[in-house]
């Protein structure tokens, strides 16, 4: 019991240091060596896609000497990479801004193109309310527990008018609950927002969403031509499982891309990220990726089904690769710590998320088939 | 002759596309496949340091599977890396801002901490006059051909007063000529600039400079404690030969670091860059690095000695790993193109550098021992 208390204290200290993000596995392992973490269920990426990337890396660069050019030389300039991405996703390169991870694009767009009053549905990813400038203000659109934290387009429209917001951020599917707005509703909303300064549509998790049984990939890129204020943000971290490579892109008006690239962001991605985009442009890679994407979605659907069979938790609707759950009788917030200490399963305690009042909220990521089985087992034991 | 003209035309088209930077080797090889480039003497890094990094990479991660964590997971946050660097260079982590390459830091510091009128000695690295905001102005301090483009501290002081500059950028050693201001002169200048908004001291090439015969590393970090407006910028691209990894850091006041990290730059370096900084913190690695640093400097000194024996060129004083040369009778600017087409040696034509009037200026990088011999041979043939 003493050991547990010590670990608990250490964890809470590290959490405090990490601000509104969770301490990374690396930090936990370094600072609390007695922790035996087996599964990182905070981590929101497709592990099968990481396997695929590693396979290609090994095939294309059998030894590190073969990788030399990637490491030694300057990567191509931003616009050269934009050209490759543009050809791949059938969007003009002039509409593409390449980022060192999506977070760089979020930050650049927030401070350059959003107005003074930015509406943000909450709960959501904290960087969106942290990375604004001093003269900007985030106005929250609170999603309601009563409505399972699902976004209601009409409510949002009304709130935009009432609060006189000039910009809107939409994460679709949303993080941490995975609520998904279908294409029809997104268009309805964009039409309503035509006169705003900026609408950010963050598609970091859209590869795990679908609107039909064939699980085909959703795509909103074409909307950029109709809505000049729209900025679509794509992270490669989650869908392709390569957060450490730091790669993403934004799709926005030609003028906005031009303005960002002229003032900075010349060599903002690494040689390895440049290699990733080369892969991304290969039809064969994308086809193989789509197989592991669907495999992972199927996996996640099974995970959901197992989760919903567990007594004592509520699961919110999600079309992302994670589930927001509410654990009953978790007033002391111990469920997450017990999962970590007793079972080595790291789940995300959401009690620090603005808009998630009360304790007992956790975000559980879907991982590999085998890991998901073990997460389910651990939750069952913990709640029994 | 027809082939040459075609290649020439293609090269000039690509150069135009690349703005004030040279087209990369990768772009040249892709767009002009008939070019047979053997040596990239535009490229300013220590190739022996790249070897060292690759050796460590192979030892620490024998296979790509071992590298998985680096690629799959989010890298540690900016402040975690700052802590590692701080311990290594004996500077408080609170004074360190980690950057995705030095260029990210340059851009952030220019737009956040430099005032409206920034003095920049020219000729120099073009990003310094490209990455300013619309309400900022760069005022040039022209270095004189008559003085071999060497910086005269008293002249600079006078110019700062006359032009009422509020910030100063100092690249030491300077690029493209390699002129080096010793520690005493730098302190003299910082003292004079005490009341400016910001003084940027870019040390990208300082690992190749020295003030005594033992070639020991110069270090200006301590000056940060005396001069609160000083920002020291360190790239890892040149000294450690890893431009593709994108890693650098800035040393500046605690307030400035805090302000930059709070508004953005959370996960701005990759897993591989994080690994590099882990290496950087190891005494053994740094000792081995210092051996290849000195080996490379010796190499560069021999290169200089050979260059100065060639008739028809003038070499300017340099303590960097490259030499600015002036080729006599090169009014048509063909020397560089001929080096590329006839010998496969890519040298940097400096005719697009503000402050280098007239044609015939080229920057030639020192590469490996063997490559330097071949560069010398090619120049001799070309000028004979």
Explain how this protein is built.
The structure is a homodimer of 384-residue chains. Chain A has helices at residues 2-17, 25-31, 47-60, 68-72, 78-89, 102-113, 127-130, 153-162, 183-192, 254-263, 271-280, 283-308, 334-343, 369-383, and strands at residues 39-40, 96-99, 117-122, 137-142, 167-171, 198-202, 230-235, 248-251, 313-315, 322-327, 345-346, 348-349, 361-365. By secondary structure, the first copy, chain A, is α/β, with parallel strands linked by helices. The first copy, chain A, has 2 domains: 1-51 and 287-383, Aspartate Aminotransferase, domain 1 (Alpha-Beta Complex); 75-283, 3-Layer(aba) Sandwich (Aspartate Aminotransferase, domain 2), CATH 3.40.640.10. In chain A, the strands form 3 sheets. Chain A has a 7-stranded mixed beta sheet with strand order 2-8-7-6-5-3-4, with helices on both faces. The first copy, chain A, has a 4-stranded antiparallel beta sheet with strand order 9-10-13-12, covered by helices on one side. Chain A has a two-stranded parallel ribbon with strand order 1-11. Chain A is globular and about 60 Å long. The relative contact order of chain A is 0.17. Chains A, B: One of its GO terms (molecular function) is pyridoxal phosphate binding. Chains A, B: InterPro entries: Aminotransferase_I/II_large, PyrdxlP-dep_Trfase, PyrdxlP-dep_Trfase_major, PyrdxlP-dep_Trfase_small. Chains A, B: This is Histidinol-phosphate aminotransferase family protein. Chains A, B: Pfam families: Aminotran_1_2.
């Amino acid at each position: 019991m003493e050991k547990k208390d010590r670990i608990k204290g250490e964890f809470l200290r590290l959490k405090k240091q990490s601000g509104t993000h969770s301490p990374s596995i690396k930090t936990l392992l370094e600072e609390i060596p007695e922790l035996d973490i087996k599964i990182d269920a905070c981590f929101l990426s497709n592990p099968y896609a990481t396997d695929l990337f590693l396979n290609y890396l090994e095939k294309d660069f059998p030894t590190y000497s073969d990788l030399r050019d990637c490491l030694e030389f300057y990567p191509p300039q931003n616009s050269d990479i934009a050209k490759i991405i543009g050809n791949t996703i059938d969007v003009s390169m002039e509409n593409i801004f390449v980022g060192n991870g999506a977070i760089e694009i979020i930050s650049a767009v927030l401070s350059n193109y959003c107005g003074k009053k930015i509406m943000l549905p909450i709960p959501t990813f904290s960087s969106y309310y942290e990375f604004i400038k001093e003269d900007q203000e985030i106005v929250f659109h609170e999603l309601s527990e009563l409505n399972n934290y699902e976004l209601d387009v009409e409510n949002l429209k009304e709130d935009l008018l009432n609060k006189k917001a000039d910009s809107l951020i939409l994460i679709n599917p949303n993080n941490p609950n995975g609520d998904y707005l279908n294409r029809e509703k997104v268009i309805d909303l964009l039409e309503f927002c035509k006169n705003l300064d900026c609408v950010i549509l963050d598609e970091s998790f859209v590869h795990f969403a679908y609107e039909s049984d064939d699980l085909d990939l959703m795509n909103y890129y074409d909307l950029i031509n109709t809505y000049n204020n729209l900025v679509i943000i794509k992270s490669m971290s989650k869908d392709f499982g390569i957060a450490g490579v730091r790669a993403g892109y934004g799709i926005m008006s030609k003028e906005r891309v031009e303005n960002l690239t002229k003032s900075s962001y010349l060599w903002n991605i690494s040689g390895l990220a440049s290699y990733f985009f080369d892969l991304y442009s290969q039809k064969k890679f994308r086809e193989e990726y789509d197989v592991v994407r669907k495999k992972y979605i199927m996996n996640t659907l099974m995970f959901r089904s197992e989760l919903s069979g567990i007594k004592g938790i509520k699961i919110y609707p999600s079309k992302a690769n994670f589930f927001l759950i509410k654990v009953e009788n978790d007033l002391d917030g111990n469920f997450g710590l017990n999962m970590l200490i007793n079972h080595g399963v790291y789940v995300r305690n959401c009690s620090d998320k603005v808009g998630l009042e009360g304790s007992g909220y956790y975000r559980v990521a879907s991982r590999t088939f085998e890991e998901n089985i073990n997460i389910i087992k651990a939750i069952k034991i913990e709640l029994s």
